Amino acid sequence: MTDIPKDHPRYLSLMTRELIIQGVEKGITGITGLIAQGRGEAFDYLLGEQTIPSASEAGRTAAAALVLAKSPVISVNGNTAALVAEELVKLSTMLGAPLEVNLFYKTQERVQKIIEYLQSYGAYEVLGARPDCDIAELSSERKHVCKQGIFLADVVCVPLEDGDRCEALRKMGKTVIVVDLNPLSRTAQSASVCIVDNIVRAMPNIIELVDEMKGKSTSYLQEIVDGFDNKQNLDDAMGSIYKNLKMKHHQLPNIQKKEK
Ligand code: PTJ
Question: Long-range contact list for 90-94, CB < 8 A, 24+ apart?
Answer without folding.
Answer: 90/207, 91/66, 91/157, 91/203, 91/206, 91/207, 91/210, 92/123, 92/124, 92/125, 93/122, 93/124, 94/207, 94/210, 94/211, 94/214
